[in-house]
Amino acid sequence: MKKFATLLFSLLMISILVLTACSQAAQTPAAGDSSSAAQGLGGKTLVIAHDVNFPPFEFLKDDKYTGFDLDLLDAIAKEANFTIDSRAMDFNGIIPALQANQVDMAIAAMTIRPDREEVIDFSVPYFRTGLVLAVKPDNSDIVNPEDLQGKTVAVKIGTSGESFIRDLPYADEIDIKTFDSNNDTYLAVINGNVDATINDYSTLRYYIASEGPGTLKIVGDLLTGDDYGIAVPSGQAETLKAVNDALLKLAQDGTYDQIYEKWFGSKPTQRPGGL
């Protein structure tokens, strides 16, 4: 009788352990199940800032913001499992908004720079570019920064282009005009109000391709080699990790290439993570 009771007790304990294991397995997401709320950021809503006018990265078209950055953001949100609460704002207000924790993230073709890294955190680089000079097609006087002495130059306020020109040793010999948008800097050159603009190569190339080669011409070599990063407030390690993981996955599975080709017409030479 004692042996029977012991056997019965053992069978009962085994049944309990099996049922517990099955219950835990049912609650645990399968490996690679990106649809589970346990993955990434768990479906939370993030307030995300972007620039209002920096084509082809972000710009207004048919009353809706579009562009490379925003397509990439949509793909990141899907992969990292978060919902986007989008906020368009002037570029020079984005970093203060991050510092004040008014936004959770920013994607705005923002160059990763040491001074910015002191106050906010950046993802792995997601885009490689650089600054160039652009002038009217008939201008043969300006080829490099040294030629800007005694000239008037348009830059978008708060950008790396403005920082670059103000840091030149002969900056006090240049008449620097600041504008709120890239398009305003282009028009200032086209209309003859300034002699040149210093701007991102990718945006200038896109503008010239869209508006025609008779508008502007790019002169000289790349002045800088810049990496764009997605920004978050300092210390937001969980958000940053989710974004970085998503960027690397998109670079590996071909999604990044598809978005890049849509906006730039060719495959990228460099992808997130240096792939």
Structural description of this entry:
With 275 residues, the protein is an alpha/beta fold. It has two domains: 45-128 and 228-268, D-Maltodextrin-Binding Protein, domain 2 (3-Layer(aba) Sandwich); 131-224, Periplasmic binding protein-like II (D-Maltodextrin-Binding Protein, domain 2, 3-Layer(aba) Sandwich). Helix content is 37%, strand content 20%. It has nine helices and 14 strands. Strands 10-9-11-8-12 form a five-stranded mixed sheet, with helices on both faces. Strand 9, helix 5 (160-166) and strand 10 form a beta-alpha-beta unit. Helix 2 (68-80) packs antiparallel against helix 9 (255-264). The chain starts with a helix and ends in an 11-residue tail after the last helix.
Q: End-to-end distance, in Å?
A: 70 Å
- In total, the number of domains comes to 2
Please report the first level of CATH classification, the CATH class of the largest domain. Answer: Alpha Beta
Q: Which secondary-structure class do the elements indicate?
A: alpha/beta
Mean pLDDT: 88
Number of helix segments?
9
The strand order across the widest sheet is 10-9-11-8-12
| CATH architectural name of the largest domain | 3-Layer(aba) Sandwich
The radius of gyration is 26 Å
What is the tally of beta strands?
14
User: So what's the oligomer here?
Assistant: single chain
What's the name of the CATH homologous superfamily of the largest domain?
Periplasmic binding protein-like II
Q: Approximately what portion of the residues adopt beta-strand conformation? A: 15-25%
Low-confidence stretches: 1-38
Main β-sheet description = 5 strands, mixed
Q: And the CATH topology of the largest domain?
A: D-Maltodextrin-Binding Protein, domain 2
**Which series of helices and strands comes N to C?**
HEEEHEHEHEEEEHEHEHEEEHH
Describe the global form. globular
